[in-house]
Amino acid sequence: MTITIEQSHPPLSDLPDTYLIALTECNAIKLQGEEQNKYLQGQITCDVNELEQKKILHGAHCNAKGKVFSCFRLFERNGSYLLFQPKSTIEHSFAELKKFGVFAKVEITTADNLAFYALVGDNAETLLKTQFNQVPDSQTPVIEINTTTLIYLAGKTNRYLIIDEQAQVEQHVAAFSLPVYSANVWRLLEIVEGIPYLENTEKSEFVPQMLNMQAIKGISFTKGCYLGQETVARMQYLGKNKKALFALQGQLPSRTKDIDVEKQLGENWRKAGEVIASYVSDDNQCYLQTVLASDTEQTASLRVKAHPDALLTVTALPYSLSQE
What we know:
The structure is a single chain. By secondary structure, this protein is an alpha+beta fold. 18% of the residues lie in helices and 35% in strands. The longest helix is centred in the first third of the chain and has 12 residues.
């Protein structure tokens, strides 16, 4: 079965009411074994023990200095844990988990046998009900029906993950008779929702709070020790973190591959921060996920360095960054 994937890059406002996304740029690290819970608990920022009740968690995997290898959604499928994330962050995170995993009763692999699709939009729930006798929701966000895992993702837009082996998922996808977009559109939605989408973690530059992981409940400050925990706690309790993740939007005069953001300081412009993910639509609308100073105001004067007339605006995220 061949699924035709739209290669266009529509702006957010031009996306249809309901559509599918082939998540070919995403994969998952898989953990299974007698000590999968105990082992993972000592490696990542979220409290794995909460998975039994909450069913899906945001989390980050850090090095010993508290710098992030990857940000992921953690959920269970057929008794195994899956850390779902962009493929660009799999390699480093996988290598580190494997390195320490030899001392635990756990098998760590990548979920290369699985295909991941997203069903997005106003009619997503109704369409799922035409194929499945149960649909996940905010109270029961992860369900398994036969071999298929369905996951509800809360946010501005209704989003559901459909996970199974390739042939089985494609049967469901074909039956929906909807346009199927490339994984670029998933990146756009993550930017808008304020979910960190790391495209390159070779430098391991950011602590989790710089990526708003605390705001999306991806850090437990009470679970005890894990890799990088001392740095993460120090950032939280000593107020040392001065950066946060922002969503920016603007109009470019032409397509630009490498995008740097500048901020106006008096009569001068200076580098404002680091762009971690970007999406440029076919009409050159620009959506950026950028780590900036945490006190950046919505009225801040920001621009694209390569196009000085291309001003950027800070768009509201669906959660608060206030320290309560």
